[in-house]
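Dear colleagues,

As part of the handover before I leave the project, I'm documenting each prediction I ran so the next person doesn't have to rerun anything. This entry is a single chain, and its sequence is reproduced below.
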Amino acid sequence: MATTSDIKNGLCINFNGKIVSVVEFQHVKPGKGPAFVRTKLKNLETGKVIDNTFSAGHKIDVVRVERRQYQYLYPEGDGYHFMNTETFEQIFLPKESIDQGDFLQEGMNVEILFHAEEERPLTIDLPFHVVAEITYTEPGVKGDTATNTLKPATIDTGAEVRVPLFCNIGDKIKIDTRTGNYMERVKE
């Protein structure tokens, strides 16, 4: 069994009967009193992030997980279909298990995190950036680059993002899938 000294970002542990991933951690050794580890834990089933403090030396139950490459195929009803790129086996995952499902594009490669002992999918990691085409936005005005003002735009996946005023319909833009923020316009 592991202890708090083994905690690192991305480590999956069993916490209060739920499988959580360590998003952030900090070892704290105050001048007075015992040392402790302050953590942010993300529940892999619900996506909620909670703060928790472990005392130094506290035993933690590490969960063995595997990352597997899958390709996104298509949406259906309240979920998505994916195909394993090695075995061509297909799986269906509900929309709730995907944080940024609005940015999925057909043929996109993603990593699916599986509970190794139960062979159960836990969560999906999208690529950090996607390139998408703007399908609708209000017309841009030439010269609107000096301010940091943003306007709503719909991209080809159906997601709505905020883009600078100079972006127009048909422009390809790069989006950060972790935050949903516009990054840059892509030249073709």
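The mean pLDDT is 89. The first strand starts at residue 2 and ends at 3.

All the best with the project,
I.
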